[in-house]
Amino acid sequence: MHSSFCPPQRTLMGPGPSDVSPRVLAAMARPTIGHLDPQFIHLMDEIKSLLQFAFCTRNQLTLPVSAPGSAGMECVFVNLLEPGDTVVVCRNGAFGGRMKENVERCGARAVMVDSPWGETIDIDAVEQALKDHPQANALAFVHAETSTGVRSDAQSLAALASRYGCLSIVDAVTSLGGIELRVDDWGIDAIYSGSQKCLSCAPGISPVSFSDRAVARIRNRKSRVQSWFLDMNLVMGYWGGGSKRSYHHTAPVNALYGLHESLLILHEEGLQSSWARHKNCYQALAAGVDALEINLLVDKSYRLPQLNAIEVPEGIDEAAVRARLLSDWNLEIGAGLGELTGKIWRVGLMGHSANQKNVRLFLSALGSVLAASGWERKVDISQSLAAAANVFNDAEINR
Ligand SMILES: *Cc1c(COP(=O)(O)O)cnc(C)c1O
């Protein structure tokens, strides 16, 4: 009959979720208390201040939406947009396409600025679109395109938005904690993230933050926010009401214990150290992959350290390799999406998963599986591991 579910022990090096730290898992197993308990309200205040730290912002409206990253995305769009608005949307992968969906479902018009998958967002093309559509009141883009492993220049894009009188809307689901991100310094107006990528918490929570300009837009809407659950005017009374918090919905209490612990871990490490650790692990992984004579898809200047798009070599069955990594090595990596299906593997080095052991595990596993697959090229795993070790050693020496 039925029995308890005991998941296998995997190493998660895909596009998310990433490995969850034992500290976070332990936090989530603590006793559930009421979501209006004074102790819980104290925890909510701490989560808010830790999120302000992680986003580098003093925005008052900074909170975790009780649902995954996609809900954070939806939250930002439904609160800021009204029917008839025009939004310039940058699309260079799957998640830019989802932004378009959200804009249109709000009854607004999406002016698309497309770049090929694997390329970064073309700032000049964005500026041209803003010039051509002076009625646009928002610019939306993805900071870390998880479908391709591309970083966009969020600082320049946010500055452009402000120069053209637009609010900047930023998808930071994969960027938060993994690469430099400064909401206040860069003038970002609305941003959403996810718990399960570089924060290494369990999936299901989406941190969001809104600037004062964005809050003014929400307060001065002509129409009601189409979603009751995500209406920030109502949620603000719950997350921002001080000791007078009123019931809006039941917060996912234990999930928030986990988020708190994961943010605490980030705070203890420090943002700069976390960004540096992700970069170092990526450089070692890239050196090891290069030693196997396999290419990375994305140009060096805008690669994401936390998501590596590795080109599948000629004659290799993409899905078969991924299946072997999972079955023989308990190692999860991701497949390509959309037009990159079958052409790339997506290897995540996110949060708790970005460590030396995982880099070495991945290189050993990939090398072994390729060798066993009858690949015509000679696979030298020890050379690949040595290339990665050199990067780690150099980082130690320079510390
Ligand atoms: C994962 C991801 C999302 C969606 O987050 P979910 O938690 O899966 O809903 C949105 N945008 C980007 C860039 C992502 O990587």
TrEMBL record:
Pfam families: Aminotran_5. Its cofactor is pyridoxal 5'-phosphate. The keyword Iron does not apply. Keywords: Aminotransferase, Pyridoxal phosphate, Transferase. The modification N6-(pyridoxal phosphate)lysine is found at residue 197. PROSITE patterns: AA_TRANSFER_CLASS_5. Substrate binds at residue 346. GO terms for biological process: glycine biosynthetic process, by transamination of glyoxylate. The keyword Metal-binding does not apply. InterPro entries: Aminotrans_V_dom, Aminotrans_V_PyrdxlP_BS, PyrdxlP-dep_Trfase, PyrdxlP-dep_Trfase_major, PyrdxlP-dep_Trfase_small, SP_NH2Trfase/AEP_transaminase. Residues 32-336 form the Aminotransferase class V domain. It comes from the Bacteria. One of its GO terms (molecular function) is alanine-glyoxylate transaminase activity. Belongs to the class-V pyridoxal-phosphate-dependent aminotransferase family. This is Alanine--glyoxylate aminotransferase. It comes from Pseudohongiella spirulinae.
